[in-house]
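The pair is quoted verbatim below.
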Amino acid sequence: MTELRVGTYNLRGLRDDVPALVRVLTAMRADLICLQEAPRLAGWRARCERLAARCGLRLVAGQGVAGVAVLAAPRVRSLHAESGLLRVFLGLEPRGLAVAVVEVGGAPLAVASVHLDLDGRARLHHAAEAMARVRRVAAPYGAPVVLGGDLNESPHQPAWRYLAGQLTDCYAAAPRGDGLTFTARRPGHRIDGVFAAPGIQVLSCGGVDAPGADLAAATDHLPVVAHLRLAG
């Protein structure tokens, strides 16, 4: 059995207090972190790599147009990375998927980061498209799937319900804390989540033990971390 921590965090484009953000990312103590609103466009990779290095992590997958990425701790071995845009909806922001197939303690795992749209029709389409893609990437490695993201909707809404029907909503399975993630200063909604394949045991899922001042200053979302156990 292998235990690991997988987190998800919307960085708001590093427009806030970056030193506070680094402290929160470090406090997550995660083996893998799915990022949304990571640095984008020109120089995105170098900026993501610099941020990762400040937290003792490394960039293992990313999509520079959509601002999604996956960071990994030193003990995580990278096997494959694949990223790309999801279907483009006219008039809406480009959305993408970053997938890293990794090995932790001898066990394979496919970890994907996604940031769904504000438009409900696009959200549901992209949720299904993301699941199909990450499963395709994971299949050659026999890797179970973990998906982390900013879903831009609550658990009772269609895209969230779709993902929770395909994977386990980790917070619902083993909640720690109130689970609210938005806004960071006045949390009132759970719109960020980690979802794991049914064969993965969820030991706990919730917020991060970091100073409230850092959580409020780092970005407008709160991070989520799931403590998981893999068979193998």
Helices lie at 18-27, 44-54, 120-138, 158-166, 170-173, 212-218. The chain has one domain: 2-230. The first helix runs from residue 18 to 27. The first strand starts at residue 2 and ends at 10.
